[in-house]
Each structure stands twice: as structure tokens, then as C-alpha cells.
Fold this sequence. Notes:
Layout: H1 3-16, E1 20-26, H2 28-34, E2 36-41, E3 50-56, E4 63-69, H3 74-85, H4 90-100
Antiparallel strand pairs: 1-4, 2-3
Amino acid sequence: MDGLEFLDQVEAEVIRRGGGAKRGSIARWELEAAQEIRVSIRPPRQMSSTELFTLRKLEPGEYHLMLIAVPRKAEEQNANRRIRHLGYSVHDDIAASNSEE
């Protein structure tokens, strides 16, 4: 199975589960110039963004990118709401991981 067939299968499964997928690609020169790929979220009424993850130390080359969003189970969503209600945020995780380095 080549890379595109794999992406087709992943996309079909994500859609079957009620989610969405977005594809893209990155050229070798883009990765060499940037040296990392960052994924972040930004709410519509907020100027700053929250970094979700970063891919570093990838071998220079051409890459297919795919961002997928798969709906979580209701129990997981309720747990996340409870965590937010307690004042926890992703920023707490980022601050903690930065202080450990």
C-alpha cells in the first residue's frame, strides 16, 4: 500500500466515524527552511494561539500531511468539561513541561 492509498483509508475511516480530514503537502525546501512543523489552534475571537504539538527532527524530504479530527466519546467530552470547570488549561501543561527542561 502506498502513502496515498493509506491516506485514503484513514480519511474514509475518519469520515465514517463522523469526523473530518484535511490534506496537504510539504516540499523538501520548506522543511529544510523551517526545520519543524507546528500545529496550533486559535479561537475566532482570540489573537493568541495554543500550540498542540510540534514535529521536529524529520528527515528532509517531501511529506504528505493530514490533519484529522475524530469525535470523542461522550464520556471523554464530559470529563474534558469537568477539567475546564476546575480551571485546568493546556497552558498549565505547557508551563509545566517548559519548567522541567
